[in-house]
Amino acid sequence: MAVKWEFSAGGVVYKKEGDKIYILLIRNKDRYGFPKGNVERTEKKEDAALREVKEETGVDAEIKDYLGNVEYWYRSGTDTIHKFVYYYLMEYKGGEIQPQKEEIEAAEFVELEKVNELLSFDKDKKVFELAVKKLTDVSKSN
Ligand code: ATP
Fold first, then answer.
1. Domain CATH code at residue 21
2. How far is CA 25 from CA 39, 44, 125, 131, in A?
3. Which residues line ligand 1 (CB under 6 A)?
């Protein structure tokens, strides 16, 4: 048995259409969350976050802000994994949704108001809460 560290990065991607704001969610084994994935050894967290959003969902995005990290533990075989996920607020720039079938079951833009009840993990809800705060500021300045 060993304790291993894992570092991932991902994005809370928003898309504005008129007054409405949509958030990109992924679904995996009936759990909803944000697109994310492993940070490679030579890669910056920001680059990993953008790459993973693109790879998992097909979406091109631009980083607007940093939202903090989420930390959790899980078991993988006989190993215990201590994981950190770094999240960025991102604006949708283009690309059709195309879920990476080996990694996730679905990806979709969901109305901002419906996101909180869908998210499976409380720690993701905290990240989302901060994203909403920052988005409200963005809307004021636009
Ligand atoms: P990545 O997308 O970073 O490559 P992964 O798909 O291999 O990661 P995780 O999504 O980290 O793996 O899931 C590994 C385990 O941790 C699963 O059992 C999952 O249910 C759990 N998990 C995922 N996100 C959270 C979270 N925010 N809080 C607590 N547990 C989580």
1. 3.90.79.10
2. 20, 23, 12, 14
3. 8, 36-38, 70, 72, 74, 83, 121, 123-124
pLDDT beyond 70 at 123: yes
Quote the number of domains for the chain: 1
Question: What separation, in Å, do the N-terminal and C-terminal C-alpha atoms of the chain show?
Answer: 52
Domain residue limits at 124: 3-141
Residue ID of nearest Cα to ligand 1 atom 17: 74
Ligand 1 mean position to 14 CA, how many Å?
22
Question: How many Å apart are CA 23 and CA 14, to the nearest integer?
Answer: 5
Distance of CA 55 from the midpoint of ligand 1 (Å) = 17
pLDDT tens digits for 61-90?
999 999 999 999 999 999 999 999 999 999
Ligand 1 center to 74 CA (angstroms)? 8
Give which of 38, 19, 12 is closest to 109, Cα–Cα.
Answer: 12
Q: How confident is the model at residue 91 (pLDDT cuts 50, 70, 90)?
A: very high
